[in-house]
Fold this protein.
Amino acid sequence: MSMNLEFLAFVGTALVAIAYVPQIVHIIAKHCAYGISLKAWLIWLVASILIIPHALESQNNVFIVLQVVNIVAIVFILFFTYFHGQKICKVHKFL
């Protein structure tokens, strides 16, 4: 992969990580997991765990980092969603 494409791929990976932040912050700060599907997030976690051996074997750094970011973020979301018992914050209560 050329350096320019690899750089763009790492920027994309950073955007994936950034995209998880509002969800994680909301769950932790507001103790609110409104609309979170534990089953869907578990499936995404299993998918990333199944993909990472291929990423490691191919030695593609972008792919490896992307899967690690996904796994870490999904584990955070699952843990805090489960920990907070899918409570609903004041904002989502009136939706």
In short: The chain is about 80% helix and 0% strand.
